[in-house]
Structures are given as C-alpha cells and as structure tokens.
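Today's session is about reading a structure prediction critically. Students often jump straight to the picture, but the first step is always the sequence itself: look for stretches that repeat, for charged clusters, for runs of hydrophobic residues. Only then move on to the predicted structure, which in these notes is written as discrete structure tokens rather than atom positions. Here is the chain we will use throughout the hour.
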Amino acid sequence: MRWRTGRKSDNVEDRRGTRRVARPVVGGGLGIVVIVVVAMLFGVDPQVVLNIIQVGDSPVAHSPQTSSHPPQDDELANFVSVVLADTEDTWKELFRQGGKQYKEPKLVLFTGLVESACGRAQASTGPFYCPADQKVYIDLDFYRELKERYKAPGDFAQAYVIAHEIGHHVQTLLGISKQVHTLRQKMNQTQANKLLVRQELQADCFAGIWAHHAHKARQVIEQGDVEEALNAASSIGDDRLQKRSRGYAVPETFTHGTSAQRMHWFKTGIQTGDINACNTFEADIQ
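Below is the predicted structure for this chain, in token form.
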C-alpha cells in the first residue's frame, strides 16, 4: 500500500502508556445499568456494551497527559494515522456529493485496557467502534495477532480493519445503526443476530467503498493489496473463527458473517464504489 506520502490525521488520540489508576466501580451493578441505558439513548446495541464491560475489574483512570498525535518514530501508529486521514478525505467527499456533511471520528490507540462511552474493553475485544462517543479503539498489538494467529499479514489488511470500523461510523452518521438497534429490540436472539450480520457486512462493503475511491483519487493500492484485505476478511469470518475455537460452527450465533460473505461484500464495495450497492439489508444473503 502506498501510504508514506499521505497526510496524517489530527484525530488520533494516543492513550498508550497512560498511567493506570485503580478506582472503585461507581454504583456497582447499578452503574452498569446506567451505562447501558445511556448507550441505548445513543442507539448503541446494549449487547455490545455488555460484551466489552469487564465487571470484575477495577476501572482505569486515564492520565490527562495523552498525546493527540502518535510519536513521530512510531511507524505503525503513523500508518494508522495516515489511513484514518485517507478515510476522512474519502468519506468527506462522498458525503459532500450526497449533500451531507461528514463528521470525522476520533481514533484511540491504547494498550491492554481502555475506557469508552460504551464501557471498558480489553485488547482481546479487538478493534471496535463506539457510537456513543463516535470513536474507533484499537490496540496496535492486534495487528501482530492478525498476522501471526489469523495468518493475514500485510499493510492493506491492516488498513481494511480500520476502514471496517470507519464503516460503522458512516452507519452511525447515516442513522443506520440506530435503525438496526430499534429493530433488534423487537426480535428474538437468532433474528437479531441475523440483522447484526447484515450490519457488519455493510461495514465490510463500506470498507471496500473507501478502497475504491482512495485508489481512484490517490493510487494507494499496490499489487497484492486487495488479496491481503480479502484474506483478512476471510480469516475473521464467524464460521472460520468458531471452527478454530470449538471445532464446529453454529450459524444462528453468527454476528459478523461468514468468510465468504465478508469477502463478497468487501469486493462489492471495492469493485463498484457505489454506496447504494452496499444495501445488505435487502440483499439475498446466503
């Protein structure tokens, strides 16, 4: 991926190495209920909140001295900053063409444990987007895991991960996330999971949309890059992850889509560059 000449985003919040201070959980279980209620008001799926809140641990108070920019000598952090800036430029233009204004999200770099408006999360949660504060969170060690554990190396594979989370931000700005949340409250768990899969697949398609327009405008894609992204999408499909962890897959519990589905929708986005082609909610998804 050609990224070294790209501009860096001003929206990176570097919390790595911040001082950790243990403090009691305010209100215990009641505090968690309050967080969930607030999350619902913002259109956040309560299940997402519950998945990332670690009830038994003491929260972490972040030191106020957090850098708004990654260290100049930190190549991976710089890479993330450049990719984030590229998503900003791409979606800002696409929103402008649609008569809308794009609100840039923040991206938080953290190590080990982080607090967000959606709750506290550990690095094992993986990269995630919180609609309540409109921030993307990522522990850069995830990229080592992506390469070594999931066998999906490459800088464009790493860019795909960021672009997918930004896809969720786009869904939030367009009101899609709130609509999905409202509909899921009226469904049983199996139906709700199926709707969540469609939302995740659309984020994959939006990642492809970014790649299409970023290359068209700035020629960022090199030979082999698309294959890297498709390999990453395949490596983190629900069916593949479940078979790796338990030896078999349970489709009714899928929340992100199969490997084949994730690759299909990323390819749809990158091949068409058309947001309207990403309507996973009305598509026939097998």
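Discussion point for the tutorial: Residues 12-278 form one domain.
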